[in-house]
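Supplementary Data S3. Sequence and structure tokens for construct A.
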Amino acid sequence: MIAEPPRKTFGPAHHLSGKVAPLYHEDWWMLDAGRFVPFGLTLVQAYCYLTEFADRAISDEKLALLQASLDNLRHRGLKAVLRFAYERDMGLKEGPTVDWILRHMEQLEPLSRRHVDVIYVLQTGFIGAWGEWHSAARIGFHNDGFLAGPSDGGTWPEPPHFGGPGNPEFYSMTRESAFVPVDGELFWSDQGFDGKAARGKGVDGPECGGEDAPASLQQLQPRAQLLGAGRPTLLD
């Protein structure tokens, strides 16, 4: 997350425990990003939460924190897949009104334009839990664990095909992907799959915790083969 003040809202990843300050700081995830520099990765998923501004203008302090965060990305040679959101979980019954969201967009536009060189893509965001449009209106598909492995992090729990050719739900999504937006999150492993069964409830399945090795290219081959078959796929 970016543009967050130094407060105890959650803990760092387990491998950073004892190595970082107890209060939240961007260095937590910057250290994570640094782990993958040897692999040539320069993109980071950056969430900017506007939770406390659901019914008022974004404060100058918050905008200054966002400015500092984007400057930090530039300094480190990183680009952001940037998303703005209000809801940190699915428990919020009422979010901001359309009027407030539009006013916030107007506030954020000048800053976003100044940092267009470090914003690789601006995701739709703003609506639903985590800005995913989760538990709210949605057009298109969100894949919770895109390319993570056989089940895509539990997105495709149906055996024996899981997230590959042969799964009717997978074929349905790939057909629709030619006409509607398709988005997703990148896991470093198939955290919803134990090698035999997958946890989840289809395309809208929940994210799952855990940690394992990165998915292999062999796991992605069936989907790559679809490209040669002339069918619209998630990779189009």
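Construct B, processed identically:
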Amino acid sequence: MYVAVKGGREAIENAAKAFRHQQVRNGSDPLHLEQIRDQLSLAVDRVMGEGGMYDPDYGALALKQCAGDVLEASFMLRAFCTTQPRLGYSLPTSTSEMRVIRRISAAFKDIPGGQVLGPTSDYLLRLLNFELMKEEDPEYQQTLGRLLEELPEADPLPVSFPKVVDLLREEGLLAMPETDGVAPPLVDITRESLSFPAPRSAALQAMARAETGGLLALAYSSMRGYGMIHPTVGELRVGYLPVHVVNPYTGEKECIGEAKVTEAEIISETRDDSGDLPRFSLGYGLCLGHNETKAISMAVLDRSTQAEEPQAPSEDQEFVLLHTEGIESMGFCNHFKLPHYVTFQSALDRLRTSREKLQS
């Protein structure tokens, strides 16, 4: 039980003014939302993914308001989302409909449709580019023009690509989920509290909103041997997924837009003591925006938490889902900054009393 602190309103208001002053005191030009949205797009994508709301403009606004604190911005975006009315639900969409801008496979060199490297810095040296320190608007426009001239003309990408993991399914090398003919339950964790064991739909939704670093830490522990999963990326996709809804007036299916997403399907060997032929197993990850580290980590943990008898933290579903929720964990961590005068005085009194008894 925590007691609300009264008073100190003026000090709190001044603290907020000081925070704002810290952002503008050196007289630099104000950041426009378009600059943050376009030039810090990966940070905005992370805010949208962890905030659980797809809106690049609001993601950029939250990032600006929080001075670049990604967790705080995600918190703000999720809080805003809870104030908005829910008008309806989109229809399920297959990622085979994705308008792909990047698609790679680490499992096969030659894949149907070909490898599409797309926009990425993966293959560059991690060296600071000091030219960016003095980037001015005229030079910026020249750089843009030069890049457009240097990029070769490419054939347009296909409308859709086949799934790489389907090659393994067709050969019977991929384990299929066991079902009793009944569709698994679909749980919306924004409407129902998470309970354990959680159905896969709830687990995937929780990880899609989870904090990237938390997912990475637990997935990395499994990769290093504190778990059973050492993955191979069957396919990694980045692209725009259409959003379909049912028109309430006509009853027809309509596309109202698209959202950028990252999808990862990882392949892992699986232990099978049933005597059946050995097969690979699949882990799946999909998150809003361009965030490949998160999607891969999510896929690893999706596969890890399917273990029947967890032997490591990364295999324990409750441990994974509760400790990768960044906004909840940040809130709990930061609440220790609030006054705990009464509880600490109680601990202090107990300690002093114990010392007196031992010394007497």
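The chain has a mean pLDDT of 87. The beta strands are 99-104, 232-246, 253-269, 280-288.
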